[in-house]
Structures are given as C-alpha cells and as structure tokens.
Amino acid sequence: MGLRRGKRRDPGTAPGASPADGTAAVELRGVRRRYGKGSGTVHALRGIDLALPRGSFTAVMGPSGSGKSTFLQCAAGLDRPTEGSVRLGGTELTELKENQLTVLRRTRLGFVFQAFNLLPSLTVEENVLLPTRLAGDRPDRRRAAEVLTQVGLGDKGHRRPAELSGGQQQRVALARALVTRPDVVFADEPTGALDSTTAAEVLGLLRSAVDRLGATVVMVTHDPVAAAWSDHVLFLADGAIADSVPGGDPGRIAARMRALTERRDTRDLTGAAL
Ligand code: ADP
To answer: 26-273 has which CATH code?
Structure first.
C-alpha cells in the first residue's frame, strides 16, 4: 500500500450533516456524559452532535481533560452516555445489553491503541485472527494473509510480536482492526509510541484503508501532523465540539489547537485570580 494522501472529502459533510445514503457510520445526538453526583459532578461531555459518513477519516483533538477519551469510549460502546443517542451503522448502542455490545464491538468495530495491545505469546497471524476467534467464527487464514499483505507484512505471519519493530507491531494491530471489515476503526493515539517516520507509515496505511478499502476511521490524537492525514479535525473543549477544520495542513491544525489551549489557560488564570 502506498503512503499517498488521498482525495479529501468535503469537510462540510462532517459534524451534523447527513451522508448521502442516509446512514452515517457514526452518529451521536445530544450525547452527555457526567461522572459523579451533586457539587462534585464532572461534565465530561456536554452535548455532542455529529454524523460521520462512511469512508471518512476523522481526527479528534483537544486539550487534556476536554473529553476525547470519553468521546471515543462512548462512540465505541465501551462506555454509556448519561444522555443521548449513539448509532453505529444505524444500530442504536444505548439500547443494547452488555453482551450485545461486546458482540458488536468484536464483529463491527476495530480498535488500534497507542500500546499496540498484541498478545506476545501468539503469532502475528493468530493476533490478527483473534477478533474472529473471539466472535466464535472459523478463523480465515486467507483473510489474515490478505490484511497482513495490505499492511505490508505478508511474510511475517509466523513471527511473534517481540520479533517486530514498533511500527511493524502497530501495522499488525491495524491488520487485526481491519480483519472483520468493521464499520468503524477507532484509533487512540495510534502513533504516540512511534518515531515520526514510522508514524507516517502507519498513518499512510490508515489513510489507504479509508481511500482504498472504504474504511471509516475515528482517531484521537494530540499531534497536528498525525491529524493532518485525516479528512477533517474535530476540536473538543470542555466536553463540546468547539471547532472543526479540514485535514491536510498541520500548521493550521496546530494554530487552532494552540488557540483552544490558550483560551483555556487564560480562563483558568482568570478563575485562579478571583
Ligand atoms: P481527555 O481524553 O481529553 O484528556 P477525558 O475524556 O479523559 O479527557 O476526561 C474528561 C473529563 O472527565 C476530565 O475532567 C476528567 O477528569 C473527567 N473524567 C474522565 N473519566 C472520569 C471518571 N471515570 N470519573 C470521574 N471523572 C472522569
């Protein structure tokens, strides 16, 4: 797979818009998440509304504590919102029981984490086939070989993770995320543990998964260079979507990020002075 950046989609079709086929890959309406009760209540998400079209690549940025992790957890069915609706490929997650959510996550979602999260005792091929096994389906070795080839590791199926470089391990994790042809791939700081060259390779593969395989990717990152590979960047601040810009230009993304962080720091300083 090449590392070419693909044609970007119109950022105007990002938050709030409806995709042409009527079913967004990810749709959140009025999503709120509170932790705790009474005066100690933390409002981690204060009403998120968005619809992400299939085949789009969205980056989510924001200062620390702005709600990025909570957003990802609610969108991926790992946490339940206090209020609101989360739909993945048209399925309302908030109505599912815990075991139904687990099945949905295993069969229709892919996950890529900063720490790769591969099982060291399994081969690369076994790691890639793990979601299939956990879903109770017959492991399809040909499918494993196909996705490993897509991430450039067609000859590494019999290796153990420890025999691979960090970038290669993250590519295995990406192959594992793609093996079930999921509705959405959620990536949480997928390049946080990689040097910039290796990070670009992994981001190029995520980009290719969107452009060539029609995957939908939602990626939390603090890195404007990583976010620039996306079609559009959503900025969270204080649990709400504060801004949205097209991907492509790391400088512009960094400037928006700085503005948000400075706004928060100024507010904190003002608050401290009172
Ligand atoms: P980010 O990922 O942008 O750093 P988080 O989603 O982790 O932000 O957190 C958003 C807010 O919710 C923060 O104020 C955080 O302290 C709070 N928060 C997150 N998880 C919990 C929890 N389990 N209990 C209480 N507060 C939490």
So the answer is: 3.40.50.300
